[in-house]
Task: inverse folding
């Protein structure tokens, strides 16, 4: 039962009550009794809550002067309006029959249509669940509608203890729209989910005011825009790599020569060229050369498993490959694929002309690159990004300053779409691009590079952003703008960075690869941080929040993010069905296209967006978008695994981690028929490491007899047990030996949250991952007073195998730190 409210007149003071809609049109309807009008009002309220809360059943209390009636409704958005009206009618009739013997003559007279008593003095609406979103805030909801008769007109006042006056006014206007729609006979046969819900004024705000970020970016390709920068300031520094510097003229010259060579190999518009090399001037020259030849680059991570690289090459079928010697040794390249080695002293193309090749067919709608992301079916999907998509991101942006005075740091892997912003934000605007040292970078190395080269613009994943400590922040004072994203930023971290870097503009950036890196941004000011929204659509981008019927949701109500504008990618390479599923026409802008992101958000009153999570089971871990289905498919192919489920878990303030739950096949055995424990975490991790990149490897494996199911037979993810990491560490515990192992075990146990770590324990089997590895190396560097590269931990993840270090004094320093 809903709490009994105070119904005094003071409760409905003008500042607390929505301006009521007037019922004069309804009174003029022929053969419309007061009871029928009440039914329509309740039906409108039921439809509204079904559309905005998606929680049923609804509890409705009608308060009369002499009695109270309780109704229960089960509205669904797929029901027709007439079906919901019938449901309301039936609930009223059922309740009337139930109380008929208890009501006096005056009450019976009210049921026959007496105006004074057919209408309750107060209507209260609630839902049975603990929380719901009605006004844009999560709270235990209670709506109150006060109905009163004045000069043969009925006024309806709306009140809620969890709403502002503006929000209540807006709900009243939406109910009025629904009531108007219910008057029309044709609406009775329409699903409730398609009924007009938004007043014209709110619809204009959603479509125009919140999406008014127009921009006029150049309608030219990336190669031409770079050439314009080289012509404008040929001696300006374009690249900085250690002690090496290249001017725009030098970079343009070398890229032109390689581009001629690529053209001779048959590269042209929409031809893919694979590229894999360490961060170096040769890498950037190769990227520019591909674009100048009209092609599109396909980044390959030579550290990825060979099986995965082979699958990408088979799917993409590049017409050539650019790589350095180290990558060529590790890439599983077909013998017939033309290869250009980027790190040659005297390359074959050094005698080609230094002017740009002519590619008359090249247009801005041709491809710039293809990036592969995790796929839900177990197969990675290649996102095809066009040159105009990139130009929209970095040319004349309204969310960040991209001018010739900036210095960008290229630290993201080329296969990660943040590199698009870092690379082309600099080179298409005449700025300097500082290349971070080759290899996997930890946060200390990034901050040191920023300090050394006076970098002004930096991008960090949310995971790295959260780890910034006072010492590292003290190295970032050259920054003018710091962008972070890829996952949710915490308010505490934002406040900490804002206070440490008062002259740096902090920006929370959101966007999927399919919408070219960034779609919305929020610029934090110097005031106290009260929340961390993902901001407004950036210039040239349109964002709609839609429900399951692809109708606009009201302000404050959760909806799925659909992204439109020139940042939307072409689609998925060789996956037309998936492209048709995720990309489609913009129903609100003729000729436009939309990408369905699968992310949930809600509009704020000021036009910024709050991120609320995912619609589907896709995961975001350490800045990487991960489809658990791809990991599950790989697990099911492992020896001894009958079924598997992968989820992301976060315990307290710890980092989000992947956890795999596996069901054993009957009696797994080796080739000799001997039973083996094929589900041992180390065994499973080693098997997955042959197929998946590091960021997709689960941090923990839990063996179950069967997967928990709900009453309806679906997987009950909430019933999956948390991994017992302490038990894993204790199961095969062998005491550590020597000062070296004592130091390592102390650091591992502290950061992994374990009571003890043994000498044969595997860092990643205990729940370690790349961000924790970074913190381990940081702690060891504090203790040892020298660099400890992350690559050492990845190469030797078992404690007793981790290389020898001088620890006698280091262990004492660790205890004092």
Result:
């Amino acid at each position: 039962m809903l709490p009994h409210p105070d119904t005094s007149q003071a409760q409905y003071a003008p500042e607390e009550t929505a301006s009521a809609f007037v019922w004069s049109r309804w009174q003029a309807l022929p053969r419309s009794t007061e009871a029928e009008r009440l039914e329509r009002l309740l039906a409108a309220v039921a439809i509204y809550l079904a559309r905005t809360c998606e929680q049923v059943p609804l509890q409705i209390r009608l308060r009369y002067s002499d009695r109270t009636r309780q109704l229960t409704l089960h509205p669904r958005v797929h029901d027709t309006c007439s079906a919901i009206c019938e449901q309301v009618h039936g609930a009223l009739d059922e309740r009337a029959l139930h109380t008929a013997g208890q009501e006096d003559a005056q009450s019976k007279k009210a049921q026959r249509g007496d105006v004074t008593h057919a209408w309750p003095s107060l209507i209260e609406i609630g839902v049975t669940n603990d929380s719901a979103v009605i006004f844009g805030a999560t709270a235990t909801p209670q709506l109150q509608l006060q109905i009163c008769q004045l000069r043969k007109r009925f006024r309806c006042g709306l009140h809620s203890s969890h709403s502002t006056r503006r929000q209540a006014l807006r709900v009243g206007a939406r109910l009025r729209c629904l009531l108007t729609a219910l008057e029309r006979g044709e609406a009775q046969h329409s699903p409730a989910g398609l009924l007009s819900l938004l007043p014209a004024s709110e619809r204009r705000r959603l479509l125009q005011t919140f999406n008014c970020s127009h921009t006029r970016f150049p309608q030219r390709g990336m190669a031409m825009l770079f050439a314009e920068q080289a012509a404008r300031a040929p001696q300006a520094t374009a690249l900085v790599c250690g002690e090496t510097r290249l001017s725009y003229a030098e970079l343009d010259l070398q890229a032109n020569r390689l581009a001629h060579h690529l053209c001779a190999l048959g590269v042209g518009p929409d031809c893919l060229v694979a590229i894999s090399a360490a961060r170096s001037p040769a890498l950037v020259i190769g990227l520019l050369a591909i674009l100048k030849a009209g092609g599109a680059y396909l980044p390959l991570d030579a550290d990825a498993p060979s099986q995965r690289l082979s699958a990408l090459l088979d799917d993409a079928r590049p017409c050539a490959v650019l790589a350095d010697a180290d990558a060529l040794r590790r890439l599983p390249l077909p013998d017939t694929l033309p290869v250009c080695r980027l790190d040659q002293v005297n390359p074959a193309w050094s005698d080609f002309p230094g002017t740009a090749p002519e590619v008359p067919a090249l247009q801005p709608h041709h491809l710039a690159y293809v990036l592969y992301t995790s796929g839900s079916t177990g197969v990675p999907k290649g996102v095809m990004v066009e040159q105009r998509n990139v130009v929209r991101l970095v040319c004349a942006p309204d969310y960040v300053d991209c001018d010739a005075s900036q210095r960008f740091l290229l630290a993201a892997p080329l296969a990660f779409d943040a590199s698009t912003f870092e690379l082309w934000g600099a080179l298409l605007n005449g700025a300097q691009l500082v290349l971070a040292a080759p290899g996997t970078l930890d946060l200390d190395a990034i901050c040191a590079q920023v300090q050394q080269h006076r970098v002004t613009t930096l991008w960090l994943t949310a995971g790295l952003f959260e780890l910034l400590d006072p010492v590292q922040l003290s190295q970032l004072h050259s920054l003018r703008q710091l962008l972070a994203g890829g996952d949710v930023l915490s308010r505490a971290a934002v406040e900490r960075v804002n206070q440490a870097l008062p002259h740096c503009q902090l920006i929370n950036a959101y966007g999927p690869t399919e919408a070219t890196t960034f779609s919305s941004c929020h610029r934090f000011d110097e005031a106290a941080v009260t929340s961390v929204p993902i901001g407004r659509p950036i210039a040239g981008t349109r964002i709609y929040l839609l429900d399951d019927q692809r109708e606009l949701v009201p302000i404050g109500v959760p909806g799925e993010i659909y992204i439109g504008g020139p940042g939307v990618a072409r689609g998925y390479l060789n996956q037309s069905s998936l492209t048709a599923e995720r990309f489609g026409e913009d129903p609100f802008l003729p000729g436009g296209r939309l990408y369905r992101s699968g992310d949930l958000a809600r509009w704020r009153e000021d036009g910024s967006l709050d991120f609320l999570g995912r619609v589907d089971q896709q995961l975001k871990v350490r800045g990487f978008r991960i489809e658990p289905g791809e990991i599950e498919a790989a697990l099911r192919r492992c020896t001894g695994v009958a079924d598997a489920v992968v989820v992301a878990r976060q315990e307290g303030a710890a980092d989000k981690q992947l956890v795999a739950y596996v069901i054993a096949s009957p009696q797994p055995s080796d080739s000799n028929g001997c039973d083996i424990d094929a589900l041992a975490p180390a065994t499973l991790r080693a098997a997955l490491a042959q197929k998946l990149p590091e960021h997709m490897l689960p941090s923990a494996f839990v063996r179950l007899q069967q997967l928990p199911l709900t009453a309806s037979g679906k997987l009950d993810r909430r019933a999956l047990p948390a991994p017992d990491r302490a038990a894993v560490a204790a199961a095969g515990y062998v005491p550590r030996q020597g000062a070296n192992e004592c130091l390592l075990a102390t650091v591992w146990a502290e950061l992994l949250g374990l009571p003890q770590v043994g000498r044969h324990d595997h860092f990643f089997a205990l729940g370690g991952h790349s961000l924790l590895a970074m913190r381990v190396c940081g702690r060891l560097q504090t203790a040892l007073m020298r660099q400890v590269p992350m690559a050492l931990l990845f190469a030797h993840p078992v404690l007793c195998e981790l290389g020898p270090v001088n620890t006698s004094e280091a262990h004492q320093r660790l205890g004092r730190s």
Observations:
- The two ends are 57 Å apart (CA to CA).
